[in-house]
């Protein structure tokens, strides 16, 4: 196809504003998929994505559209992941296209992820077409929402397209806008090959599939190509496009988006954002701005049943094959036995991986408190990263500690603003900005990431009854008074419960923790002290009194079957217990203890 008849675009939106539905409708309208093969949300492939309505892997489709001017266009849609944890992937895939549809639910208005995503699109120099969706609903307020797009984002919304992705109203107008309002790609077919590695994933039949955007030159089957980041060479054995199922093509030229396979063993060998060129006479200039995505949140994952450790290793290795941004190493905990210390791009990423291990591999897990990466400046001048609070060296060796800070943007209806400000203030936040758009407030806070990984989303949701939206980006590291707090049960430290806290918040957190544990740990035949300590100093303490009766004492008389049942229950519960010296701690205790109010 000649460049003038190609349009590459993505759809940016806040979650649930209708991105997937609109994509489906565009595919259907252009009969890219026969009607009988159409299923809702064609582009969301993984189960967990469907359940949570989150698109995690970028997906792509090539659409042929005969415009009203009678000419045939090729439209390539890249569906970017919608969540903050995957911001880096979003920013890369944005650079693979020239324009975006900005979808805003006309019953809801602009939300935090609308802003985060549209700023990424603007960063990538996109032409942007605003689309007001869900106009079939009575609560739709197109004028107000268009005004909001102008006020808050500063985009001209006078020609916003009014759409119902549900009923199909406005779909042709959207296709026409893609053709006439978005720019065609540029490129030189005679220049050396330069292509962007937009995404990659593992397919059990094909091995690693690589999504590419050709900038200059062209690629075809059997070409030998180099991944410039690590210099590896591969031979293309399959090349094609997504419709959305895979269809082979002869070649991919400038402006085109498609896939290749090249006997690549693991996703790790393909770095998102890398430049692909030909082995011989390749380009000398890779695309600018490559950086590998770095895990920012770490936690320990341990099998509840320690005999499942090898199965878990297997599961983790398989998942890592398909997810280069997930890191892991083996960890041994006195408390929890053998497991893995894992690094994630954010909390959602953590949740997704944990859920997949539990569901797809049927392994029950204990998750330790998520922790951020701290920078330690040692007195001897050494600088290290701390991934696990349990590894925190004695404070006498540490000069100072730096923690990651984020810039958080929260949009919330007026009524809940006070509660949101209080929450942010409680989490050591510094207010940067507060503005209004209609009856919604937009607050911007500088917050420590470590305060956000503790149930911040949950708290925000509960104080705003679900009406707030939230987005963040890491802005850098800053020194603060951070210490390691240990938890001791029956005078033994429980490594899995140690955490880094701000010194001023240590007492409160320690108190909450020991009180919670007191309720969660079953009583034993002896007294159990539960303590929180910093270094050698105890900052909070509770005592669990000794048990007097045995559990079966309540069943008077000869009800043997009831007695049996109770004992069986106990046994089942035991499996989920962890022994600490002489004390059994139920798994529940770990999970609940880590949820702070
Ligand atoms: P995404 O998270 O942005 O991909 O949003 P989805 O496409 O999954 O849509 C979220 C919800 O809104 C789903 O229940 C859709 O059926 C619904 N939805 C999407 N577009 C429309 C529309 O135009 N009208 C109505 N009434 N509902 C819609
Ligand atoms: Mg979706």
UniProtKB/TrEMBL annotation:
Question: What reaction(s) does this enzyme catalyze?
Answer: GTP + H2O = GDP + phosphate + H(+)
Q: Which domain of life is it from?
A: Bacteria
| Functional description taken from the UniProt entry | Required for accurate and efficient protein synthesis under certain stress conditions. May act as a fidelity factor of the translation reaction, by catalyzing a one-codon backward translocation of tRNAs on improperly translocated ribosomes. Back-translocation proceeds from a post-translocation (POST) complex to a pre-translocation (PRE) complex, thus giving elongation factor G a second chance to translocate the tRNAs correctly. Binds to ribosomes in a GTP-dependent manner.
User: Carries keyword GTP-binding?
Assistant: yes
* EC numbers on record: 3.6.5.n1
Sorted alphabetically, the keyword list is: Cell membrane, Elongation factor, GTP-binding, Hydrolase, Membrane, Nucleotide-binding, Protein biosynthesis
* GO CC annotation, single: plasma membrane
Species of origin reads Flavimaricola marinus
Q: Which parts pass through the membrane?
A: none
- Subcellular localization, per the record? Cell membrane
Q: What class of enzyme is it?
A: hydrolase
Q: Which residues form a coiled coil?
A: none
Matching PROSITE patterns: G_TR_1, G_TR_2
- A Gene Ontology BP annotation from the UniProt entry: positive regulation of translation
**What is the membrane topology noted in the UniProt record heading this document?**
Peripheral membrane protein
What protein family does this chain belong to? Belongs to the TRAFAC class translation factor GTPase superfamily. Classic translation factor GTPase family. LepA subfamily. Belongs to the GTP-binding elongation factor family. LepA subfamily.
In terms of SUPFAM superfamilies, this protein maps to: EF-G C-terminal domain-like (SSF54980), P-loop containing nucleoside triphosphate hydrolases (SSF52540), Translation proteins (SSF50447)
- Annotated residues that bind GTP are located at 16-21, 133-136
- Start and end of every Tr-type G domain? 4-186
Q: Which InterPro entries match?
A: EF-4, EFG_III/V, EFG_V-like, EFTu-like_2, G_TR_CS, LepA_C_sf, LepA_CTD, LepA_IV
What GO annotations for molecular function exist for this entry?
Answer: GTP binding; GTPase activity; guanosine tetraphosphate binding; ribosome binding; translation elongation factor activity
Q: What is this protein called?
A: Elongation factor 4
């Amino acid at each position: 196809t000649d460049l003038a008849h190609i349009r590459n675009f993505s759809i940016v939106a806040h979650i649930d504003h209708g991105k997937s539905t609109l994509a489906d409708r565009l595919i259907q309208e252009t009969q890219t998929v026969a009607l009988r093969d159409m299923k809702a949300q064609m582009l969301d492939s993984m189960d967990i994505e469907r359940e949570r309505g989150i698109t995690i892997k970028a997906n792509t489709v090539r659409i042929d559209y005969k415009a009203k001017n009678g000419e045939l266009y090729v439209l390539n849609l890249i569906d970017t992941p919608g969540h903050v944890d995957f911001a880096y992937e979003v920013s890369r895939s944005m650079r693979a296209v020239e324009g975006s549809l900005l979808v805003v639910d006309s019953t809801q208005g602009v939300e935090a992820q609308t802003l985060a995503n549209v700023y990424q699109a603007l960063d990538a120099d996109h032409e942007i077409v605003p689309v007001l969706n869900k106009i079939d609903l009575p609560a739709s307020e197109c004028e107000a929402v268009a005004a909001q797009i102008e006020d808050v984002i500063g985009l001209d919304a006078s020609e916003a397209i009014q759409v119902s992705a549900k009923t199909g109203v406005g779909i042709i107008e959207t296709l026409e806008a893609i053709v006439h309002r978005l720019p065609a790609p540029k490129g030189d077919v005679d220049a050396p090959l330069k292509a962007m590695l937009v995404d990659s994933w593992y397919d059990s039949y094909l091995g690693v599939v690589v999504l590419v955007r050709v900038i200059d030159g062209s690629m075809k089957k059997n070409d030998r190509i180099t991944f410039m980041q690590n210099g590896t060479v591969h031979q293309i054995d399959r090349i094609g496009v997504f419709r959305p199922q895979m269809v082979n093509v002869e070649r991919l030229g400038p402006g085109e988006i498609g896939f290749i396979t090249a006997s690549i063993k693991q996703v790790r060998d393909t770095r998102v954002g890398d430049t692909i060129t030909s082995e011989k006479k390749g380009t000398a200039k890779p695309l600018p701005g490559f950086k590998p995505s770095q895990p920012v949140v770490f936690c320990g994952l341990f099998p509840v049943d320690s005999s499942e450790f090898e199965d878990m290793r297997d599961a983790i290795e398989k998942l890592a094959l398909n997810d280069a941004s997930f890191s892991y190493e083996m960890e041994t905990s006195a408390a929890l036995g053998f497991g893995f210390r894992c690094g994630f791009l954010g909390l959602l990423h953590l949740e997704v991986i944990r859920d997949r291990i539990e569901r797809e591999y049927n392994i029950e897990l204990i998750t330790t408190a998520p922790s951020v990466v701290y920078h330690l400046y040692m007195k001897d001048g050494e600088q290290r990263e701390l991934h696990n609070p349990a590894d925190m060296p004695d404070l006498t060796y540490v000069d100072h500690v730096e923690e990651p800070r984020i810039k958080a943007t929260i949009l919330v209806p007026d009524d809940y603003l006070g509660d949101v400000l209080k929450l942010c203030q409680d989490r050591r936040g510094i207010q940067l900005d507060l503005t209004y758009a209609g009856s919604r407030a937009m607050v911007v806070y500088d917050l420590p990431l470590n305060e956000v990984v503790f149930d911040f989303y949950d708290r925000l949701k509960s104080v705003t009854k679900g009406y707030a939206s939230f987005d963040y980006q890491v802005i850098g590291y800053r020194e603060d008074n951070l210490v390691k707090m240990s938890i001791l049960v029956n005078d033994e430290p429980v490594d899995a419960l140690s955490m880094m806290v701000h010194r001023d918040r240590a007492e409160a957190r320690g108190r909450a923790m020991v009180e919670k544990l007191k309720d969660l740990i079953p009583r034993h035949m002896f007294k159990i002290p539960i303590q929180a300590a910093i270094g050698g100093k105890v900052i909070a303490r509770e005592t669990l009194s000794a048990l007097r009766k045995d559990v079966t004492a309540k069943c008077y008389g000869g009800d043997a079957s009831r007695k049996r049942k109770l004992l069986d229950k106990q046994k089942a519960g035991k499996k989920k217990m962890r022994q600490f010296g002489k004390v059994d701690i139920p798994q529940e205790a770990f999970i609940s203890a880590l949820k702070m109010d």
